[in-house]
Amino acid sequence: MCATKAEEYKPVLTKETINPLVLEAKYAVRGRIPSRADEIQSEIDSGEKSKWPFEKVIYCNIGNPQQLEQEPLTFYRQVCALVVYPKLLKDPHVGEIFPVDVRERAQYIIDHTPGGIGAYSKSQGLEFVRKDVADFIGKRDGFPCSARSIFLTQGASPGIQTIMNVFIRKPTDGCLVPTPQYPLYSGSLALYGGRRVPYFLDEKTGWSLSVAEMKRSLDSAKEFGIETRAIVVINPGNPTGACLTEQNILDILRFARREHLIVMADEVYQKNIYRKEEKPFISFRQVLLKNEAELKGLELVSFNSISKGFMGECGIRGGYFQMENVDEEVQQELVKLASLSLCPNLMGQVIVDLMVKPPAESEPSYELYQKESGDILRSLANRARRLSEMLDNLPCCSCQTIESSLYAFPQIFLPPKFIEEAQQKGIDPDEYYCLSLIEKQGLCIVPGSGFEQEKGTHHARITILPPENQFDAIISKFALHHEQMLKEYATPEWIDTIEKEKKRVKEEFTKK
Amino acid sequence: MCATKAEEYKPVLTKETINPLVLEAKYAVRGRIPSRADEIQSEIDSGEKSKWPFEKVIYCNIGNPQQLEQEPLTFYRQVCALVVYPKLLKDPHVGEIFPVDVRERAQYIIDHTPGGIGAYSKSQGLEFVRKDVADFIGKRDGFPCSARSIFLTQGASPGIQTIMNVFIRKPTDGCLVPTPQYPLYSGSLALYGGRRVPYFLDEKTGWSLSVAEMKRSLDSAKEFGIETRAIVVINPGNPTGACLTEQNILDILRFARREHLIVMADEVYQKNIYRKEEKPFISFRQVLLKNEAELKGLELVSFNSISKGFMGECGIRGGYFQMENVDEEVQQELVKLASLSLCPNLMGQVIVDLMVKPPAESEPSYELYQKESGDILRSLANRARRLSEMLDNLPCCSCQTIESSLYAFPQIFLPPKFIEEAQQKGIDPDEYYCLSLIEKQGLCIVPGSGFEQEKGTHHARITILPPENQFDAIISKFALHHEQMLKEYATPEWIDTIEKEKKRVKEEFTKK
Questions:
Q1: How many angstroms separate the CA of residue B475 from the nearest CA in chain A?
Q2: CA-based Rg of chain B, rounded to a whole angstrom?
Q3: For chain B, where do the domains classified as CATH 3.40.640.10 start and end?
């Protein structure tokens, strides 16, 4: 047999010959651990007698509420059904199925959507939706907002990436990003060829954020020739669950203006607030406009999404960003970039509208809407409290109070023997921990290394999203796995030392 | 009064300080002419006595069928209504409103969508949809297709951009792109920092495509240090409306393999075929697999969308790409890139599924589906014929037969005086022509300069989408404007010369 000519062909694209920036971008939330979880779930689904000691994988790796049995809000979906199939509005039974405000709202949306949801909208999004978003923001902040400053997007992520694409010109352009952070930031910065300039959040003091630390990081980047152009703040925090005070925000804005930085405020968890009295949500925009004289001209872009809050409409892909003080010509460039993708999907745009304009108190859908959204928020608050208490009470594990968002980000103290074993296998110790948790207990969480963390510490992100009737199981699965790990790898003396230190730190910072 | 400190603040982002690649990217289909059209329409809408000599702008600038009164297909939207609001399936009236196959299909989709359409799916898209797409492709081509080779996307554009992002590493990486072309290609190549390597389509012979011209262009790029890595083919053509033969496609594939290029086949108009007997649609994949021995290893990525065909579901944003011979590790990188945007919107994924799996002949929705889709296609074929004949019969205007897709791309012969006037205003002559057409007749079309064209020629792209009852008006608006332009700017002698040359070219190439 002789080799055929065809076999000599080498593909144009191999890992060695593609854009190296693509290789550099990482995204842990959908990385190795969730892939392993999917494999295991597939094996279980295949129906043969399973070798796994659990019936199904519980996914706590991603803020995907409806995957975990959270029901969509009735009002939203009723309106969507009519908007997607307008002929239904003319059906003789429609009045028996849909409340009058649902029908009126659907008709309003249809009337204001040229060509309906099957037609491309303007690149920046439907005008009436942008006006409604502007109204919502204006009322929330107490300062009027212009529809022109709003771009509708397919979730917050593409908006964040668009802004990065605009400000990153060269490999030495940097962006201050909190650590720990949501990996969209590190991944996208890598992909667009910019530099992440990390500032550390202080875990001991509830993941607080200090301008001194930002300044340290910025100066250190400068020494390496990095020109930092923007700062990302995630508030409420992901993965930390912390919520910033007004003074905090003002300090950051002052810092940004002093250092000539664009502020990117990721505020997608603004409705996920669990200790409203002590830690309400305050928007960056409000603090900026309250202090306009001092902060005049500072560029702020704020992001929001339909995927979080209590609606959790992740799969629909909708969101927006809003800009203050962004140059008019730059806005035109943003319109052009948006037009290259034609427009955000219209169903997402419609749900953005419903999010910012829920049923009014006088309308028939109000009561159900209040009940459904209230139940979800109360339950999330309850789960947040239970999960963080459980984690904080485990030996060699500590967890800050979850004030907001959808996650616990406990510190896990790993014994030297465990760390060594992980290192021998060439894997981050916390990834090794999470891998063992999925294989032994079927619980899928994300290692802290995927979010970046202070060197020598180990964490994991766990969503508070599994329904309450599964919560006991999750808590005991996690605790069992953790205790077995300690039993196998830690000496009683080591545990004792860690526990003493944990107690000491807690006492010191609670006193403060 | 003294200047306040705040006034000194210079924004971080100005046109001069943003990513220069963003500035370079252009997108004519939503550029200057449509913006002007929107302004004029707003003035008309504002209700004051209008200075414009028409009642509304007719948009023929973009393939957006539902904006121009094309109705969505009933079956698609019925299924979507139930999928978005599953409680409706349990309503006692549901059987009176929705045919049984619609209800069954919706239930099937709900059962196979973990968490419903409000949950993120896997980054590559829902598994059952990818399987259905694979089935459709396998049957279409007569060669089985694997679901693993399919990525669902939000329309074809983001898929095309993802592939560009992967193969462009540096400013000297090039991509062969037809001229004229759809401006997504030039715009995205500029944005990702690669080079467009243009090959010209031959207008006289019905926009035919020659490998010799591709080779000429490739070699010329090589001399300037450009490493061409990919070739884009748009078949059926946009903006040209031409459809490739099997021999044509085979020649291109052979050329690509010889020159070590990835083939990107933009096949979004595969259902828009108006002369099926002489010019059927043949997929690049089919020709590749038919000639596998010879073409072994050649990398092919094909794109499709729900926005075109007869459904025209532009606003929903759905599509897919399918790969042959793409390296396994590179596919993993594509999964990672997809995961950075989490997932394509689920409603778009659902409609992709309905597109590739329409009602079967035995099902109750079949008849209506056939009628609706057949009516649209017949009408499009009729409009294609009428528009190209009208344009070709105008003096100083010629138009090739529209075999497929949604556009006429006539050549417009502009008198020297007109060209001079445009140049004095610093504007492309065909853009000047389109601007005058919108201001005088309210007809919005896109200048050929937005699609790139052979130097010294002028064209415009006009969609065939306006409903038939508006078609007479469009035709007379265009003709009136064109003839007025000639009257104002051309001498009878010049017109005579052009007409003689037009006749000569036609005779020469019809004989062939």
A1: 22
A2: 24
A3: 121-356
Domain with CATH 3.90.1150.10 in chain A: 31-60+383-511
What would the CATH number be for the domain defined by B23-67+385-511?
3.90.1150.10
B72 lies within 8 A of chain A by CB: yes
The residues, any chain, with a CB within 8 Å of residue A73's CB and separated by 6 or more, are: A310, A311, A369, A372, A373
Query: Which of helix, strand or coil describes residue B444?
Result: strand
Pairing of strands B262-266, B300-305: parallel
Distance, CA of A145 to CA of A95 (rounded, Å):
36
- Answer positive or negative: Cα dihedral of A311, A314, A315, A317: positive
Interface list for B 374-403 with A (CB within 8 A): none
Contact flag B157-A342 (C-beta cutoff 8 Å): yes
Question: What is the C-alpha separation between A454 and A356, in angstroms, rounded?
Answer: 37
Query: The domain at A122-356 falls in which architecture?
Result: 3-Layer(aba) Sandwich (3.40)
Q: With an 8 Å Cβ cutoff, are B115 and A30 in contact?
A: no
**Hunting for tokens 């057949």 — which residue is that?**
B374
User: Nearest Cα to B263, choosing from B299, B218, B217?
Assistant: B299
Q: What is the pLDDT of residues B36-67, one digit of tens each?
A: 998 999 899 887 767 888 988 999 988 888 98
Nearest-CA neighbor of B110 among B128, B91, B133?
B128
Residues of B186-222 as b/e, b for ≥16 C-beta within 10 angstroms?
bbbbbbbbbbbbbbbbebeebbbbbbebbeebbeebe
**Sheet strand arrangement including A173-179:** A150-153, A319-324, A300-305, A262-266, A227-234, A173-179, A195-200
Query: What residues contact residue B510 under an 8 Å CB cut-off, 6+ apart?
Result: none
- Return the pLDDT at B29: 66
| Cα angle, residue B445 at apex, residues B443 and B447 outer, rounded to 5° | 135
> B256, B298 in Cβ contact below 8 A?
yes
Q: Which CATH number fits domain B121-356: 3.30.70.360, 3.30.870.10, 3.40.640.10, 2.60.40.3760?
A: 3.40.640.10
B280–A contact, CB cutoff 8 A: no
User: Distance between alpha carbon A443 and the CA centroid of its chain, in Å?
Assistant: 20
Which chain B residues are Cβ-neighbours of A340 within 8 angstroms?
25, 27, 157, 161, 184, 187-188, 191
> Binning pLDDT at 50, 70 and 90, where does residue A4 land?
very low
Could B341 and A157 be called an inter-chain contact, meaning their C-beta atoms sit closer than 8 Å? yes
- The string of pLDDT tens digits covering residues B344-357 is 999 999 999 999 99
Placement of tokens 């309906």 in the chain? A116
Domain A31-60+383-511, CATH homologous superfamily name and number: Aspartate Aminotransferase, domain 1 (3.90.1150.10)
* Residue extent(s) of CATH 3.90.1150.10 domains in chain B: 23-67+385-511
Nearest to A318 by CA among A175, A150, A445, A149: A150
Residues B428-448: tens digit of each pLDDT: 999 999 999 999 999 999 999
| Look-up of token digits 């954020």 | A209
Beta-bridge mates of residue B233? B265
Tell if the CB–CB gap between B66 and A294 is shorter than 8 Å: no
The percent helix, strand, coil of chain B (3-state, each to 5) is 50, 10, 35
Q: What ipTM does the predicted assembly reach?
A: 0.93
Interface test with B, best of A2, A84, A87, A335 (most B CBs within 10 A): A84
Per DSSP, chain B holds a count of helices (H) and strands (E) of 19, 14
A26 touches chain B (CB under 8 A): yes
Q: Which of B334, B217, B185 is nearest to A23 (CA)?
A: B334
- Within chain A, how many helices (H) and strands (E) appear? 19, 14
